[in-house]
Structure formats: C-alpha cells, structure tokens
Amino acid sequence: MDLDVIFLGTAGSVPSATRQTAATLIRRGGERILVDCGEGTQRRLMQSVAGLTDIDVVLITHGHADHILGLPGLLRTFALRERTRPLALYGPEGMRKVLRDLDSVVGKLPYPFAVTEVPGGGEIRGDGYRFEAIGTRHRVPSVGWALVEDDRRGRFDIERARAAGVPDGPLNGRLQRGESVTLDDGTIVSPDGLVGETRLGRTLVFSGDTRPCDSIVARAIDCDLLVHEATFLDEELERARDTHHSTAREAAELASEARVRLLALTHLSMRSPPRQIRAEAEAIHGNVVVPRDLDLIEIPYRDRGDSVLVRGGGRDAGPSRTPEPASSTGHASAPSRSWLGDLQRRLRLHPSTAPSDVAGS
User: In sequence order, which residues have a C-beta less than 8 Å from that of residue 81 and are 6 or more positions away?
Assistant: First the structure.
C-alpha cells in the first residue's frame, strides 16, 4: 500500500513568501489524513498532487493560531461542495472550545463533523493502523501524533507449499494466516517453514510544537519517519526553552537516541536559514531533510527500500520535480509519482517549479 507525506506548510508561527504555516497531508492508499491546518492549507492542497480532496481525518497538535486558522475556510469549502461524508477531528484538551469559538465563522455544516479530545496515550483505530496521541511539552495543551501500521504476515513460500503437496487455492490462504491444513489424503500441513517472519508495519511520528520530551523518544524508536519541529538554531536555545520549542540540534539528538530512520525538520523560523538548520542537525544524526512546502516523502515498506524526499514531489506541476536523497549518506532518490489525470490538473494551478526558500536551501 502506498504511503507518503506532503508538506503543505513548513513555517513556524507566521508564513513567509515561500512557506505557509503548519499543515501536513498523509496519503495512505485512498485515505487522506491532515495533520494540523494552518492558514492557507486549502490553497496548498489546490496546488498539490492531492488536490482539494475530501479529507478523511484531521489531527490537531494544539490550538495555537498557526496550526488551526485554516480550519474555518476548509470546513466551509467542504460545505459549499456539498460534502455529505462525516469528518472526524481529533486534538488535545481544549479543542472542542476552539471549534465552538469558530462556530460563528464556520456556520452550519451539511455533513457530520465530530470533534474528539484525545489525551496523551490515547489511541484511535483505523483500517490496518492506529493513531496514537503522544503527550508533549508546549505552552498550551498539546499532543504529537503517530500513525502506526499493523504488522504484516510473513511472505508465503508457495514452492515449498507445493512440494509439501498443498494444491494451489484457498488452502494457501489458510496457511498464510498461520493455520494448519488437512490435505485430501489426511496429511496435516503446518505453516511452520512455509511462512516467513512477520514484517513490520510503518510508523510515522509528528511532534507538533514541543520541547524535546521522553514520550516522543519512546514512540519514535526505530520509526520510519519523524517529523519534528526545529523552530530555532542552537544559538537561540534559551529562547527555545522560554517559548517551549526545540532547536535543530535538540531534534537531531532526540532522533539519534530513538534511532529514527529519517528525520524531517519543519516549523522553521524566518530567522533560521534552512541550510543552517540542516547542517546543525546533520552533525548529530545522519539522515536529515528540511522539506519545503509541497515537498513529498515516500515511505515504502522496509523490504522495498528506504524513504525518499522528492523535492516538489507534492506539487501538481509535472516534469520539473527533482528527487533528492536525505543526505550524502542518506536514503536513495526515486522518481516522484503522478496521481491525477490531465483533466484534473487543468482545473487547478500549475506552477512549474518547486518553491525556493528565502535562504535558497
């Protein structure tokens, strides 16, 4: 099943000319999951390969303006498009009040919209995965989020099954599910030796705004992707402490401790050039990327390769997109995918190049 992450907004606190405030889209198969919804989110969706699609779930990390001001417009747009499918929003303590305060702006919605507050440690089950809320350390009630896939059954060795006398057909499926089967001659065939070791599902972790904390470390251990805030460089460590944010060095130290496979740094201050953010983190942790808006990270199953950052890969633009490895010792590059047909592309904006950072990173 395809799994990728499109970075819709990577700025911290206020937008810049090239970066909008916090929003990230997870695409897992046909599902669309939005993590935070800062100002300008629906515009970035229109510019992306996903389009202004019906979101299935919204996960909010906390109620600060740069993480929720895109909600009123997005909810109204869904209403104007006559959405009828239910929309679920999950967030920390206080999210119901935030949405009630926006009622007069959003107005009546023609679709069911449920807001659920989830404490750190809470879980929400999906189809083949779960969301986990992670308690974090910010100035207001806050959580990080993890998408944790169920483990997959091991590979089934059909040649060995045939050699054991198992005919092709439904008996193979039972063996792959770990059941013993009885053949027509009465022979009982066990799945032992026919099914390989269980294969790990993928895990994505999103810190939201936070000081480095043990709960993020614990959930991020050996994860496929950690998206962590890096609002400041280490030279502004005291300011990071005062505002309950993290530096790039602190995020990299956390990622190194948790043996994270790929670290993506977001929520960048305009005072912190992306190249310096990346250099500071790479001095600690090997596989680091600093995504721009509309960059994309593809996360394959581990037995199929490493996660890949595709520069501009989330932008609905076409041939100018360029894949990029995580670092000189990082993950290999791979071509970006086109997800929509020509007609859909003609109905949306078509910038032909990926956005460039203020600092040129």
Answer: none
d(CA 121, CA 145): 10
Residues 88, 62 share a domain? yes
Distance CA 212, CA 231 (A): 12
Q: How far is the CA of 245 from the CAs of 23, 48, 68, 177, 232, in angstroms? A: 17, 29, 18, 46, 8
- C-alpha dihedral over 134, 138, 140, 144, to 10 degrees? -20
Whether 99 and 19 share a structural domain? yes
Token pair in block for residue 167 = 């005919």
DSSP string, 193-210: TTB-PPBPPPEEEE--S-
Following CA atoms 90, 91, 97, 102 in sequence, which dihedral angle do they give, to the nearest 10 degrees? Answer: -70
Q: How many domains does the chain have?
A: 2
Domain co-membership, 255 together with 341 = yes
Task: Establish whether 303 is a catalytic residue.
Answer: no
Which residues partner with 9 through β-bridges? 23
Q: What is the pLDDT of residues 314-357, one digit of tens each?
A: 998 654 444 555 554 444 344 444 433 443 443 333 333 333 33
Find how far residue 157's CA is from the centre of its chain: 33
Kind of pairing between the strands at 129-135 and 123-125: antiparallel
CB neighbour class for 205 (10 Å; exposed up to 12, middle 13-18, buried from 19): buried
Marked catalytic residue, from 4, 66, 293, 306: 66
Rounded to whole angstroms, the Cα distance separating 54 from 78 reads: 7
Q: What is the pLDDT of residues 110-168, one digit of tens each?
A: 999 999 999 999 999 999 999 999 999 999 999 999 999 999 887 888 898 898 898 99
